[in-house]
Amino acid sequence: MDFFLIIGIVVGLCSVVVGMIVKGANVAVLMNPAAAIIILVGTMAAVMNSFPQKEFLNIPKIIGVLFKNKANEDPSTLVLKFVDMAQKARKDGLLSLEQEIQTIEDPFIKKGLSMVIDGLEGESIREVLNHEIDAMEDRHRAGATVFTSAGSYAPTLGVLGAVIGLIGALGNLNDVEKLGHMIAAAFVATLYGIFVGYVICHPVATRLKRKSHEELSKMRMVVEGVLSIQIGENPQSIKMKLSGLVEPKHRGKLLENAKENPQ
């Protein structure tokens, strides 16, 4: 579970509540079922009208991925793994990697190495793996776009909710005390819309894009590693090539390995 995301949402909610208290506003006004229905159901309807059924029904799966703190393999560890496999392949031949493949859990790496062992040409391997990367990138982009769109719809629906609330308030001009309460409640929908749009939906879309970027970077690194093994490239050359694809924050293990195994 990605608790950092949950903490962010809770902090955003608390900032609204505390801000209202500091300003002397009645926090109880936030308990507005009508505003919640307009924003949540209205945003859901807008998304349904914007995307095909398949993409809409995929939202729960996307949310699951979002909150799941997937333990991805450290890119630097992946580089060292490819270096070890390259050394083994140069020493004992490509067929010696068959046993190595059985211990690999990542289906993308396993697929690439299996094609190498099967004797496919480098261009064919690259084409197959790149097609898979492109397909995953399209899926990730579609998921992020759903939340980006929802983040745009929610604030506008908040304005709609405020208008509906004001219509109801203007129908009770004779009751001044009730009128003030209804006007305040009318703007709760706007608050809900802005909160849902800019504290939840847009940030979620950004987070999905970031997760996608990390996954795709790893897959592109795998492609280069697999093809380097396929052509029998020198293990140290592979290490230098793949190290350039690793973000600085993940290079710690590579530096440690270099100190332990100086050339």
The Cα radius of gyration reads 26 Å
* Mean pLDDT metric: 87
N/C terminus separation: 41 Å
Q: Briefly note the structural class of the backbone.
A: mainly alpha
Q: Summarize the biggest pleated sheet.
A: none
Uncertain parts = none
Number of helices: 12
Overall, the morphology is elongated
Annotation, overall tally of beta strands: 0
Strand content: under 5%
Considering DSSP H and I runs of 4 or more, what fraction of the residues is helical?
over 70%
Instruction: List the secondary-structure elements in sequence, H or E.
Output: HHHHHHHHHHHH
What's this entry about, in short?
Helices cover 79% and strands 0% of the residues. It has helices at residues 3-22, 33-50, 53-57, 59-67, 75-92, 97-102, 107-117, 122-170, 176-186, 188-230, 235-243, 252-260. The mean pLDDT is 87.
